[in-house]
Amino acid sequence: MKVSRYPEPILLLPYIGKWTALAGLIAALSGTASAFFLFSLDYATHWRETHPWIIWLLPLAGFAVGWIYLKFGSSVEAGNNLLIDEIHDPKKVVPLRMAPLVLFGTVVSHWFGASVGREGTAVQMGGTLADQLTHIFRLRHSERRIVLMAGISAGFASVFGTPLAGAIFGLEVLAIGRLRYDAIFPCMMAAIAADQVGMAWGVHHTHYAISAIAPITLWSVAAVLVAGIVFGLVGMGFAKATHAASAFMKRHISYAPLRPLVGGVVVALAVWWLGTRYIGLGIPVIVEAFQQPVAPWDFLGKFAFTVASLGSGFKGGEVTPLFYIGATLGNALAPLLQMPFAMLAGLGFVAVFAGAANTPLASTIMAIELFGPQIGPYAALACVVAYLFSGHSGIYRAQRVGLLKHRLPPVARDRKPPSV
Fold first, then answer.
1. Which region, left, alpha or beta, applies to residue 138 given φ > 0 means left and ψ of -120 to 50 means alpha?
2. Do residues 142 and 281 both lie within one domain?
3. Rounded CA gap, 304 and 416, in Å?
4. 206 within domain boundaries
5. pLDDT digits (tens, 9 = 90+) for 344-375
6. Which residues cross the membrane (predicted)?
7. Angle, vertex CA 173, rays to CA 233 and CA 282, nearest 5
8. Which residues are CB-neighbours of 256 under 8 A, at least 6 positions away?
9. Does any domain span residue 209?
């Protein structure tokens, strides 16, 4: 083994300089793209809310987006899963067209009234723009993996205003039970800087206030454990229902643009029957869940609308709908568990996401960033329990199993998880 004449801290300086520069470029690109996306989303949402008749054009909008993806976006149709696959097994740089296509598809989905999120768009734009640096700087496969992870972190952080959670999300989402510590510095730098870039462009994020947090007692811990189990089961149910709906549509409708057209008809008719409460991002309802009791079936309404929208092929993401589902579910569970409804809404907000995405650490940190440090112990407990009870599947099909979540019965234990 060759011994350098310089101490190890000195040898790290070029590494720090290189990845600080790359992370800064990724942050500038991703933060700017996310800012433009959020402004576009605000405009589209306001226009839809002031022109409710537009919901009847949702089927045509879905057909248009499906046709554009069929003609120009077949190579990037996999979205977030394509990014995760490229990190695991690098093959070729993600086509730049992914960024404008997912931006257009998501804004159109929200404009006309689909129930989808926004993190998928920000993550795909961040990862795609970051990956273009591979050609410019002639990066190796190992460096390209890190660049992609930093892009994912930057996109997540800038769209939610949670830089620490964004950094950990980029490390944690790739594989159940494992973190990629070789990318921790670039992901952290990119996430923090991208959040700052977004704010420099004038982005403002929603504030969620938890008015009361129960003291830590035997009862409160038991209540959070029970709630965590429910959150995990709902997160698992959402992931499986979305995958099942997508598979059903592909099996019965071979022509891709017709899938969102059919889904758009279903969503439009449901809005005509039930109203607009369950479409779009649903931020007002999420805020309401922190302020007062909401209808106990709200989480089921958002669950059904989002599964129908995503399962039929509308573009967007799953995370903000999961926040809605979790917050309203927590609000409904609060009186049953004799806990403050704002506190349970906050725990559901992050824990359903933790279970569906298999990201308990990022979700716990997100709770602390959004709601304050006092929620930390409860958030950690709820997110970990939800993670354990959500099984080994999730909303991201490309996510691999690095380590099983828990010991299984002897028959199941013999089945080794796929290697990462």
1. left
2. no
3. 34
4. no
5. 999 999 999 999 999 999 999 999 999 999 99
6. 21-41, 53-72, 93-112, 146-171, 216-238, 258-275, 378-398
7. 60
8. 66, 69, 70, 313
9. no
